[in-house]
Amino acid sequence: MAFQYIPNIAVKGMAACVPKKVEDNRELSLFETEDDRNKFIQATGILKRHTVKGSGLCASDLCFQAAETLLAEIGWERSEIGYLIFVSQTPDYIFPATACILQNRLGLSQECYAMDISLGCSGWVYGLTTIASLLSSSVNMKKGLLLVGDTTTITKSPKDKSTYPLFGDAGTATAVQYEEGSIGLKIHAATDGSSHKAIMIPDGGFRNFFSGDSLVEHEIEPGIVRNSLQSILDGPGVFTFGITKAPKSISSVLEYFNIKIDAVDYLVLHQANKMMNEKIRKKLKIEPEKVPYSLPEYGNTSSSSIPLTMVSQLCDPLRLRHNVIVACGFGVGLSWASVILETNKIVCPLVIEI
């Protein structure tokens, strides 16, 4: 198994930003009956979702605002930030890397190392691992900014009940610092690319170029109509994957680093859906009050769901005390990763809306 320990790393602050526009699943005409709507909401836990649709906002705009707010409150000099990692599957362009654009927008030094990572549901954990590794190996740069966000609502067919009511948009910023004596990060990460077709957009990349056929809608089954530029989701396959891999990853990283589940203050899961996450929680035998949910207000926000959940649901504990947190992301790729981290009175502004 792929375990890592990165000592002397501290998360010093987190911020999250969502678009103002809200879609309410209780008002969606996509559901054929009231009973169908109620069953969906009960299973997923998703009442509302924030969306960029019609606003022109990108994931980078949401991350930029989160970063601006976080930097203003944390008091870092921008010249001190040596690393900028942007994690998203909805970048501004195919190229250049969006991290390069954000380096300029945020007024960071031209000596800043800036890089994109294309990952979804597991992206925050992978991004945190990457920026922590860079900081640990740096000779003179001690501060980094991890920007993680997605605007996946624009990739969903409004005629597809298997995807459209699940997803919302968000951008987040996490301030990470190399700090001698800090506990650091304990990580497990894994990949199963053989199942990559379970969550994907078939056309529009370099494997399958965009063409006129890409826009042709196909009825997969009643209530599921989409074209080849819109997301596919194999719900049953992904559900089985999530309830199998996530608890095994969490258990293995706790066991490997000899940490008891009772010592964990919070388990923050990727916000896939409530039924899946409750299965994971029960497998781990962890109390409900230790597993926060942002699903009712924000839905599944892909890569940003873990930090958004921490900011929206755990802001006071993060600000006021020391916490031992396990976070686990799992999904598109298929990719999954778990991290054990400790926070101590970090900067955490309330969720921003733009």
Q: Brief overview, please?
A:
This protein is of the alpha/beta class and 354 residues long. 29% of the residues lie in helices and 27% in strands.
Task: Name a few traits of the molecule.
354 residues, alpha/beta, 5-stranded mixed beta sheet, 9 helices, 29% helix
List the helices and strands and how they pair.
Elements: E1 2-6, E2 9-18, E3 22-24, H1 34-44, E4 48-50, H2 59-74, E5 81-87, H3 98-105, E6 113-117, H4 123-137, E7 143-150, E8 170-178, E9 185-191, E10 199-200, E11 218-221, E12 224-226, E13 232-233, H5 235-256, E14 266-269, H6 274-284, H7 295-298, H8 305-313, H9 315-320, E15 322-331, E16 335-344, E17 352-353
Parallel strand pairs: 2-17, 5-6, 5-7, 14-15
Antiparallel strand pairs: 1-9, 2-8, 3-4, 7-8, 9-16, 10-13, 11-12, 15-16
Helix pairs in contact: 5-6
Question: Please, could you describe this protein's structure?
Answer:
The chain has helices at residues 34-44, 59-74, 98-105, 123-137, 235-256, 274-284, 295-298, 305-313, 315-320, and strands at residues 2-6, 9-18, 22-24, 48-50, 81-87, 113-117, 143-150, 170-178, 185-191, 199-200, 218-221, 224-226, 232-233, 266-269, 322-331, 335-344, 352-353. The chain starts with a strand and ends with a strand. It is α/β, with parallel strands linked by helices and 354 residues long. The strands form five sheets. A six-stranded mixed β-sheet has the order 6-5-7-8-2-17, sandwiched between helices. It has a five-stranded mixed β-sheet with strand order 1-9-16-15-14, with helices on both faces. It has nine helices and 17 strands. The longest helix is centred in the last third of the chain and has 22 residues, at 235-256. The protein is globular, with a radius of gyration of 19 Å. The mean pLDDT is 97.
